[in-house]
Specification:
With 384 residues, the protein is α+β, with helices and mostly antiparallel strands. The chain has two domains: 1-30 and 38-291, Thrombin, subunit H (Beta Barrel), CATH 2.40.10.120; 293-378, Pdz3 Domain. It has nine helices and 23 strands. It has helices spanning 40-46, 66-72, 97-100, 106-111, 133-136, 218-222, 275-288, 319-322, 342-349, and strands at 7-10, 13-16, 76-83, 114-122, 128-131, 139-145, 151-153, 155-160, 165-169, 191-196, 204-216, 228-232, 244-246, 252-261, 270-274, 293-295, 298-302, 309-314, 330-334, 337-338, 357-364, 367-374, 376-378. Strand 13 (244-246) and strand 14 (252-261) form a beta hairpin. The chain is globular, with a radius of gyration of 21 Å. It starts with 6 loop residues before the first strand and ends in a 6-residue tail after the last strand. Mean pLDDT is 82; it is low at 1-7, 14-33, 90-109 and 379-384. Residues 1-18 form the signal peptide. Residues 285-366 form the PDZ domain. This is Serine protease, S1-C subfamily, contains C-terminal PDZ domain. One of its GO terms (biological process) is proteolysis. Pfam families: PDZ_2 (PF13180), Trypsin_2 (PF13365).
Length: 384
């Protein structure tokens, strides 16, 4: 298959310094054994609604984004990540050190640590911050700089490469944070704001619309990674990784992750991880230190020319086999949601845990059949 010249580029903006390396931060779980688990949603409810900045709430068609920006900006942070000397991971994200920094000598680049600039979102008043896996992965230290310029060292609570999410913790209380929104509250064509630190410029706000709610990337899909994203035309560039995508009420609907571009710079296509995925994965990381995945127990493929997903093999004694799914079934719906592609199934499963019950509608020999499946568990990606 011919490869597209477009690059799905991550937003990690990186710089290089000759300095001593800092001690590596270790992923950890900071909830105490025996203490009741408090979800991120519950932590948001503990603190009363934040001040509304004396701005009128938007009504009807609103052409000013002052309310949303004022409400969300304090909850978006600048993240400075330091990596080991000679770190080569930049090339994964479309950065080439000597071309981007022609004034830096090869000796400095090989010996000095690499420092990356990205963004993050405070999601609880007690200091939990979400950013991207590709920002936190292999970082020797992470510094979180608030909108008011206060700075804190961050600890990694957990990371998940398949959804590109990392959960961090800073030691501070009564922080401004962004409340979770709901993807069902926005539609294609609705206004959204992207907030982050592109090129190191803190608290930068850009506006756009929701261009698509479930944009599927086949390359991500084939690797078993999260492949369904919110698409927007809000301008994003290097350093926007981990920043906020908010609705006109200033509520979080996504975490910014990448752009589709032929040049490495913004070309009109930006993407964010849906907030429902962010909430589920971050709660998993908070409770377990890792994401807990559900498995349907099927090998599947897209059905060219028609919506739906073909089951071409079942995992022996897997969840689907136990629930009555058969080879050559075409999955059309899960829990009343339309299934058009493999990416839709991945998007559905990433929101579930092992033991959850789902309802499927499949086409079997020309007839619509309903099945009930209790999901199994998996440590890896869904088989395809």
């Amino acid at each position: 298959m011919k490869k597209s010249p477009l690059l799905f580029a991550w937003f990690l903006c990186c710089y290089f310094y000759a300095a001593n390396c800092m001690a590596q931060e270790k992923p950890m779980i900071i909830t105490s054994p025996g203490m009741p688990f408090v979800s991120l949603e519950e932590r948001q409810l503990i603190q009363n609604e934040q001040v509304d900045f004396n701005l009128p709430k938007p009504t009807g068609i609103n052409t000013s984004f002052r309310y949303a920006a004022a409400r969300a900006i304090p909850g978006v942070v600048h993240i400075i990540a330091t990596y080991e000397p000679g770190f080569k991971g930049l090339e994964e994200y479309g950065f080439r050190a000597r071309e981007d920094h022609p004034g830096m000598s090869p000796a400095v680049l090989e010996q000095g640590p690499v420092t990356g600039s990205a963004s993050g979102v405070i999601i609880t008043p007690d200091g939990y911050v979400v950013t991207n896996y590709h920002v936190a992965n292999r970082a020797e230290s992470l510094e979180v700089v608030l909108a008011n310029r206060r700075s804190f060292k961050a600890r990694i609570i957990g990371m998940d490469s398949l959804t590109d999410i990392a959960l961090l913790k800073i030691s501070e209380q009564s922080l401004p944070f962004i409340r979770f929104g709901n993807m069902d509250s926005v539609a294609v064509g609705d206004w959204v704001l992207a907030i982050g630190s592109p090129m190191g410029m803190n608290s930068t706000v850009t506006a756009g619309i929701v261009s698509a709610k479930s944009r599927i990337f086949t390359s991500q899909e084939e690797q078993g990674q999260l492949s369904s994203f919110i698409q927007t035309d809000a301008v994003m560039n290097s350093g926007n990784s981990g920043g906020a995508l908010v609705d006109i009420n200033g509520r979080l609907i996504g975490i910014n992750v990448g752009i589709l571009t032929p040049t490495g710079n913004f070309a009109g296509y930006s993407f964010a991880i849906p907030v429902e995925v962010v909430k589920k994965v971050c709660n998993d990381l908070l409770r377990n230190g890792r994401a807990i995945r559900a498995s349907l127990g099927v090998y599947i493929s897209n059905t060219p020319g028609m919506p739906g997903v073909l089951v071409y093999k079942l995992v022996d004694k897997g969840a689907a086999a136990k629930g009555g799914i058969q080879v050559e079934d075409i999955i059309k719906e899960i829990d009343n949601g339309e299934i058009r592609s493999v990416g839709d199934i991945q998007q559905t499963l990433v929101l579930h845990h092992p033991g959850d019950k789902i309802h499927l509608k499949v086409i079997r020999k020309g007839k619509l059949v309903s099945c009930e499946v209790i999901l199994g568990g998996t440590q890896g990606v869904m088989e395809m």
